């Protein structure tokens, strides 16, 4: 056999329990986060106890509104073969304005503007192995 196999995207070997509902939501095309039932605070990253009221009951709700690019970085050197085929690539942090900021690969639209803080981001639900991961795309062309 001399076929070339593309490297597999690195994904978590197991999903940490507090993130299980996040990944279930992604698989359904929904971007969700835990919201405290006691004080309604959004909590990210997911934790077993609310950082404000110490409540332990959460609802997993779809994040309201649109994310804005809080920060980004472009990576020029790959430390995994899957990424080596993609350099340079950009990782962005989407800010929902409610304390939730989620990081994901920024898809390269080819002819889009250079990434900049404050740009609108739209989630892209991307299959990766057995799970779905979040990637971002610039949402300038859909508003
Ligand atoms: Zn709370």
Topology of this structure?
Elements: H1 20-27, E1 32-36, E2 58-62, E3 67-75, H2 81-84, E4 89-95, E5 101-106, E6 120-128, E7 131-138
Parallel strand pairs: 5-7
Antiparallel strand pairs: 1-2, 3-4, 3-6, 4-5, 6-7
Bound molecules: zinc ion.
Zinc ion binds at residues 36, 38-39, 41, 50, 52-53, 55.
Would you identify the regions where 5 or more consecutive residues have pLDDT less than 50?
none
Portion in beta strands: 25-35%
Order of helices and strands: HEEEHEEEE
Radius of gyration: 17 Å
How are strands sequenced across the largest beta sheet? 3-4-5-7-6
Biggest sheet architecture: 5 strands, mixed, barrel
User: What is the overall number of helices?
Assistant: 2
Tell me the structural class.
Answer: mainly beta
How many domains? The number is 2
Average pLDDT metric: 92
The helix content, as a percent range, equals under 10%
Bound molecules: zinc ion
How many strands in all? Answer: 7
Shape: globular
- Terminal-residue CA separation: 49 Å
Assign the CATH topology of the largest domain. OB fold (Dihydrolipoamide Acetyltransferase, E2P)
CATH architecture descriptor name of the largest domain: Beta Barrel
Top CATH class of the largest domain:
Mainly Beta
Provide an overview of this structure.
By secondary structure, the chain is mainly beta. It folds into two domains: about 15-65, no CATH class; about 65-143, OB fold (Dihydrolipoamide Acetyltransferase, E2P). Helix content is about 10%, strand content about 35%. The chain is built from two helices and seven strands. It has helices spanning about 20-25, 80-85; strands at about 30-35, 60, 65-75, 90-95, 100-105, 120-130, 130-140. The strands form two sheets. A five-stranded mixed barrel has the order 3-4-5-7-6. A two-stranded antiparallel ribbon has the order 1-2. A hairpin with a 2-residue loop joins strand 6 (about 120-130) and strand 7 (about 130-140). The model has no long low-confidence stretch (mean pLDDT about 90). The structure holds zinc ion. Zinc ion binds next to loops.
């Amino acid at each position: 056999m001399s076929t070339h196999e593309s490297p597999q995207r690195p994904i978590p070997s197991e999903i940490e329990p507090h993130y299980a509902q996040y990944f279930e939501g992604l698989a359904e095309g929904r971007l969700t986060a835990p919201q405290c039932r006691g004080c309604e605070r959004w909590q990210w990253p997911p934790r077993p106890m609310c950082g404000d009221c110490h409540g332990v009951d959460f609802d997993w709700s779809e994040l309201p509104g649109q994310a804005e690019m809080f920060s980004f970085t472009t990576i020029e050197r790959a430390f995994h073969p899957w990424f080596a085929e993609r350099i340079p690539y950009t990782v962005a942090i989407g800010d929902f304005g409610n304390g939730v900021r989620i990081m994901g690969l920024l898809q390269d639209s080819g002819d889009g503007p250079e990434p900049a803080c404050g740009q609108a981001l739209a989630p892209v639900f991307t299959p990766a192995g057995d799970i779905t991961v979040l990637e971002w795309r610039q949402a300038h062309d859909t508003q």
